[in-house]
């Protein structure tokens, strides 16, 4: 299946599950947001959001969780985009989204990016100080249109931050294993959790779920780390921060032994920050 066809299918699935996603994530986010994503975004974006007049662009906003967070953290102006109109309609209905500009933008479509870039040029606003794509890059069929547009939209001192399901331990279709054994030292029963990765460099798009009981499966697009990063390096960006985020024993879910939060040695999320190269002075 071609990229345009995959992109269209992926977007249609998010339209179909928009209300289920909104109900599951909620206005204030789930455990992944509270324990892993939000603290990481504070570390990576806090200083930038604190700058006077900060302008922020939230890509693939979903139910608007990050857009509201950016506003609450000090961004003076927030533009929140998504390719799914159904998602945007739900996002705009939440308390805390007042003052956010909600805009339809499909990150796989060059014409959508061209419209936004042209608007920025006409208004001469100096670009965005913060551009964020939280937990959505694995949901889109192609990254090249976004990578080409980011250098045209970032302010001179701006940053781009992205988070994704970790490509080694999640979108590689890794299997989860639970092994029971007795410790030779204590004689006590031990539970050893591991994952088996049989594919990593080349993994076909897969269908799966993000939340339990969702009405339709959405598409996942796996990319090894070199492909994730090199796509943006080729567009002229440089990386100045990266984190691998894992749950701890404090997050243990005793009701679901297979839960990903219980695999505390294996990171669930990969996060990174990029910017434009520093211009050399004569």
Automatic annotation (TrEMBL):
Keywords, in A-Z order: Methyltransferase, Transferase
Superkingdom of this protein's organism: Eukaryota
Gene Ontology BP annotations: methylation
CDD domains: AdoMet_MTases
MF-aspect GO terms: methyltransferase activity
InterPro entries to which the protein is assigned, alphabetical: SAM-dependent_MTases_sf
Protein name: S-adenosyl-L-methionine-dependent methyltransferase
């Amino acid at each position: 299946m071609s990229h345009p066809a995959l992109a269209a299918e992926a977007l249609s699935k998010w339209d179909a599950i928009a209300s289920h996603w909104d109900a599951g994530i909620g206005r204030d986010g789930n455990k992944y947001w509270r324990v892993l994503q939000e603290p990481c975004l504070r570390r990576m974006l806090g200083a930038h959001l604190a700058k006077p007049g900060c302008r922020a662009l939230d890509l693939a906003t979903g139910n608007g969780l990050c857009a509201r967070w950016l506003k609450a953290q000090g961004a003076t102006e927030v533009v929140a985009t998504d390719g799914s109109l159904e998602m945007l309609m739900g996002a705009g209905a939440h308390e805390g989204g007042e003052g956010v500009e909600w805009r339809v933008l499909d990150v796989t479509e060059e014409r959508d990016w061209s419209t936004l870039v042209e608007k920025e040029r006409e208004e001469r606003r100096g670009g965005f100080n913060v551009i964020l794509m939280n937990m959505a890059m694995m949901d889109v069929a192609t990254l090249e249109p976004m990578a080409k547009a980011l250098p045209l939209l970032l302010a001179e001192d701006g940053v781009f931050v992205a988070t994704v399901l970790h490509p080694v331990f999640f979108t590689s279709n890794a299997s989860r294993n639970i092994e029971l054994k007795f410790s030779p030292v204590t004689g006590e029963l031990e539970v050893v959790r591991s994952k088996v990765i049989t594919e990593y460099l080349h993994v076909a798009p897969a269908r799966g779920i993000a939340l339990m009981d969702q009405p339709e499966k959405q598409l996942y697009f796996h990319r090894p780390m070199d492909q994730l990063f090199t796509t943006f390096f080729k567009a002229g960006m440089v990386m100045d921060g990266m984190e691998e985020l894992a749950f701890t024993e404090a997050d243990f879910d005793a009701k679901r032994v297979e839960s990903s939060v219980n695999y505390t040695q294996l990171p669930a999320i990969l996060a990174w920050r990029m910017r434009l190269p520093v211009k050399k002075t004569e």
